[in-house]
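Sanity check

After download, print the first record. It should look like this:
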Amino acid sequence: MAINQIIIDELVEDEKETVRNLLVESYQQYEGAYTNPQVWEAYLKNIKESVDNPDVEKILIAKSDDKILGTLQLFLSSEKAYQRPELQIFSPIVRLLAVHPEARGRGVAQELLKASLDFAKSQGVDKLYLHTGDKMQKAVRLYEWLGFKRDHTKEFMNNDILVKCYRFDL
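Expected structure tokens:
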């Protein structure tokens, strides 16, 4: 898939189904890492429903030639992102960063994350957070390459999985 200029925009209603499908296609690669099929199905259901989450502040999409290549969601606090007020995060949080498998390695995730940093700055805060797990090693390398640092104080357990926190200081 040749990619011309990547444009970052906000999701509009008639793009929701395309983004829902992109999320599923992007996260499908992790299915084999789940030993319990019910846990995987619940995760997939959560991913699909996330596009309609009333707590999301903004859903960004990356487009090239009117084709949606990637997406991510932005929340304004840990309570809105995870229903975890105890994490005490009151800065934007990136969730569900996804790039279509055919568009990977072409800077789509970088552009989405740069737009997220711009969003955080526009909110007058000095940090941007995201959470990830050990299954997502390529994503972790990208976050660290972009300058995100691990923040052990904002991590939590989800069932038996450590959800690692990364923070970008603006």
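If your output differs, re-run the checksum step. Summary of this record's structure: The mean pLDDT is 95.
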